[in-house]
């Protein structure tokens, strides 16, 4: 099975209740034990199933990882979409500040989400299929940010600047936040100023 087939099977085919339970057990195992602890045998034990039953749904560890990560990223993206839909921010600056506050909030404690992403990053450095899933997620995440933050008609250069500033900052902040001299509130204001500056510069050139 090639990369495209793996990705399509993970995202397009509906999973049964047992299949979903296996993926939930896999994510829990990844968070608790890390990449090394996520084996097919340990997954079967964690899900309370026989190994052969797990392999009926997912033949290999790569199949489990691809389906689990794709599903997890879909959930993360939908959470961000729901968050933007609930926002009352009206102006471009208010929308950017809203996004930045939400993005920085994840960096203030070591949540299961942070642990999950760190393990996924580690896996992606050794696994091309998972790396593709990760890059696709970041592209989609960046598009959601830009669609919400910037009004209709803003040029693609401004959108590209916004994405290139915010996405890597959010990811780096989740690792370094506790060591930085500025608190989250001051950092959010500073980063909002930068984001508005780079997009306005793009519009004027």
UniProtKB/TrEMBL annotation:
- Superkingdom per UniProt: Bacteria
Q: Does the keyword Nucleotide-binding apply?
A: no
What positions does the DNA-binding region cover? Answer: 39-58
Where do the coiled-coil regions begin and end?
Answer: none
- Keyword vocabulary terms for this entry: DNA-binding, Transcription, Transcription regulation
Matching SUPFAM superfamilies, A to Z? Homeodomain-like
Alphabetical list of Gene3D superfamilies matching this protein: Tetracycline Repressor, domain 2
Which residue intervals define the domain HTH tetR-type in the entry?
16-76
Q: Carries keyword Metal-binding?
A: no
| Annotated GO MF terms | DNA-binding transcription factor activity; transcription cis-regulatory region binding
- Give the protein name, as stated in the record: Transcriptional regulator BetI
- Please tell me the species this chain comes from: Roseovarius albus
Its organism's taxonomic lineage begins at: Bacteria, Pseudomonadati, Pseudomonadota, Alphaproteobacteria, Rhodobacterales
């Amino acid at each position: 099975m090639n990369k495209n087939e793996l990705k399509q099977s993970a995202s397009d085919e509906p999973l049964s209740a047992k299949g979903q339970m296996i993926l939930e057990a896999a994510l829990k195992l990844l968070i608790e034990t890390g990449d090394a602890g996520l084996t097919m045998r340990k997954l079967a034990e964690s899900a309370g199933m026989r190994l052969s039953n797990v392999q009926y749904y997912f033949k290999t560890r790569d199949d489990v990882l691809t389906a689990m990560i794709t599903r997890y990223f879909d959930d993360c993206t939908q959470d961000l979409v729901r968050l933007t839909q609930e926002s009352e921010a009206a102006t471009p600056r208010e929308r950017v500040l809203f996004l930045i506050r939400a993005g920085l909030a994840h960096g203030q404690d070591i949540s299961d989400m942070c642990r999950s992403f760190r393990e996924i990053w580690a896996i992606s450095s050794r696994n091309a299929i998972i790396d593709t899933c990760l890059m696709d997620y970041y592209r989609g995440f960046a598009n959601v940010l830009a669609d919400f933050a910037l009004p209709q008609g803003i040029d693609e250069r401004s959108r590209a600047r916004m994405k290139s500033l915010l996405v890597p900052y959010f990811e780096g902040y989740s690792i370094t936040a506790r060591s930085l001299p500025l608190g989250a509130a001051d950092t959010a204001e500073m980063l909002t100023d930068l984001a508005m500056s780079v997009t306005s510069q793009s519009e004027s050139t």
